[in-house]
Each structure stands twice: as structure tokens, then as C-alpha cells.
Specification:
Helices cover 32% and strands 20% of the residues. The chain is an alpha/beta fold and 299 residues long. Helix 1 runs parallel beside helix 6. It is globular, with a radius of gyration of 20 Å. The chain starts with 5 loop residues before the first strand and ends with a strand.
Length: 299
């Protein structure tokens, strides 16, 4: 068994594919390739699989991910069309270009996992969403947000990484923050963000990871959170929700049915409250509209 090998766990029926991150003596730290899942496992429980081998759960996730990306692109096109229609199809006098410009909501994305962060930033870039990303350990997210929010001034904050229900004991309380790996850290970060901007429509907060304490995250001030069903969520679910908020007009609320039905993990993975979008249009058309950049960095 080597670092980077793809493996499945025998004790879980090989339901999820992982990549080996670290090996210490007879145990390995493994990370889900599709799902935001970080775990450790005895080496004896791991079975190496070829890259071509995809579990049934992984196949379903990949299919749903493609559908979600297609839907996001469709939403983006429809939003541009609505922008033109709302202005009566205004065109510039000197060309056939629309005489307005579009301003999607800006995203500040904090992620406890660098590889998932890079995947997220790549998707923001594909969708032309202005975004700034930082790899930050979950325990440092509150402090980092306190420093970054006044500088970045985002419309949408994504707070995600790794989480899970701690099952070291025979009994655990799903409604106690002490039963979770990182939910308490997400709650602390949400509170900092909500203290910075109390208005739920002026700052949209998307928070949580696999099996996070959904109710606690919403109670702390998140607009959208995981996981109502305490299930594994896909690595890109938070990005889908942030993109929906970024491309929904400030005149409209984010369609909750779209969030529940088109995120890869569905209604048991992500939920939220009615929230106004952050997409704006402006006039006249900017002559030197620079390309929106997605900037990864580490803190």
C-alpha cells in the first residue's frame, strides 16, 4: 500500500473510493475521491482498486455531478437572457453587443481541504464567478474570516472542509455539537461572518461538510448548510449552492427546490432558508471589462 493509491474499505462493502493520504504503522488516513470524507482505517481493511474501478455510489455521484454542472450552465445562460429582456433588449449603438454588463455575486471560499478547494475554484472559473479561495484548517476559519471579510467584501461566503459524527462511544447525540468533528468550528466561523454582516440578503453564508450539524449551522446564521440527513455530501455541493446565489438576481430569491433537487447529494445533503440572490446588471457596457479571476491562496 502506497501514498496516492485508490482503495475501498472491506468493512463498508467497498461503497466509497478513497485515496491514501498518509500511512502510520498499520493504519492509513484516506480521503474520498468524490465525497468530502476524511477517515482513518486499518491497512488490513483496505483493498487497492484500479483507477478504472468506480463504485456504484461513485457512478451515481459522477452522473449527478454532470447533471448539476449542466443545470448551472443552463441557469447562467437563462440569467443572461433575462438580463437583456429586463432592459428591453438594449444594444449598443456601435455594435451588436448588449449595452449592459453583468456582475455575479462575489464568493469568498474557505476550505479545510486543498484538493477540494482547487476543484471548487476550477468550477467557479468555468462559470465565470468572481471568487477568492483559501485553504484554512477548520479550527482557524473564524479567525481567518475576521481578517478577510473587511478586505474581500464578498456577497457569498463558503465555509467547508471535513466533518463527521464522532462515534468513539457507544452512544452519541446527533443534536450536540460535541458529537461532531468540526461542526463547532463551522459554527464559530458563521458567527464571525454574521457579526460582520447581519443582513441575511447582504451576505449569503453556505456552510458545512459531510454529516455536519445542520440545525446548529442554520441557528448560527448560515443561509444554507449541510447535512439535514447527516449524510456524506459531494465535494462540489457547496459550490453549486454558491453558484446559484451568485447567478440569482437581487430581485429574486434563490429557488430552494433547485438547491434541494440539483445539488449532487439532494435534500438530505443540503438545506437552507429563503435567500435573495446577488446577481446585478449595470449600464452602460464597460469598454475594458477585465476577465474575472479566481485566486487560490493559502493562509
Amino acid at each position: 500500500m502506497n501514498l496516492g493509491d485508490l482503495v475501498v474499505r472491506k468493512s463498508y462493502g467497498g461503497d466509497v473510493t478513497f485515496r491514501v493520504e498518509h500511512i502510520v504503522q498499520n493504519r492509513a488516513v484516506i480521503k474520498g475521491t468524490e465525497f468530502r470524507l476524511l477517515a482513518d482505517s486499518p491497512l488490513i481493511d483496505l483493498v487497492q482498486v484500479p483507477p478504472s474501478r468506480i463504485t456504484e455510489l461513485g457512478q451515481q455521484a459522477q452522473i449527478k455531478a454532470k447533471e448539476s454542472l449542466t443545470q448551472l450552465r443552463k441557469d447562467r445562460q437563462e440569467q443572461s437572457q433575462r438580463s437583456g429582456e429586463s432592459l428591453g433588449g438594449v444594444w449598443s449603438q456601435s455594435s451588436k453587443e448588449a449595452a449592459y454588463f453583468e456582475v455575479p455575486g462575489k464568493v469568498l471560499h474557505l476550505d479545510g481541504d486543498p484538493s477540494y478547494l482547487n476543484k471548487s475554484l476550477s468550477l467557479y472559473e468555468q462559470l465565470r464567478i468572481p471568487a477568492e479561495g483559501h485553504h484554512v484548517h477548520e479550527s482557524s476559519m473564524a479567525e481567518t474570516l475576521y481578517r478577510l471579510l473587511p478586505r474581500v467584501r464578498p456577497d457569498i461566503v463558503v465555509i467547508t472542509g471535513h466533518d463527521g459524527v464522532l462515534k468513539q462511544h457507544n452512544t452519541y447525540d446527533l443534536y450536540s455539537l460535541s458529537s461532531y468533528k468540526n461542526s463547532q468550528n463551522f459554527v464559530a466561523a458563521i458567527r464571525v461572518a454574521r457579526e460582520y454582516e447581519r443582513h441575511f440578503d447582504a451576505l449569503t453564508i453556505v456552510a458545512g461538510a459531510c454529516q455536519s450539524h445542520f440545525e446548529a449551522l442554520l441557528g448560527a446564521g448560515a443561509n444554507f448548510a449541510s447535512s439535514p440527513g447527516r449524510i456524506l455530501i459531494h465535494a462540489l455541493d457547496p459550490v453549486y449552492v454558491a453558484a446559484k446565489a451568485s447567478f440569482t438576481s437581487i430581485r429574486d430569491t434563490v429557488n430552494l427546490n433547485d438547491v434541494l433537487n440539483h445539488t449532487i447529494s439532494g435534500s438530505q445533503g443540503v438545506g437552507g432558508i429563503e435567500t435573495r440572490g446577488s446577481f446585478r446588471i449595470g449600464m452602460p457596457r464597460l469598454q475594458n471589462l477585465s476577465t474575472l479571476k479566481v485566486t487560490p491562496s493559502a493562509v
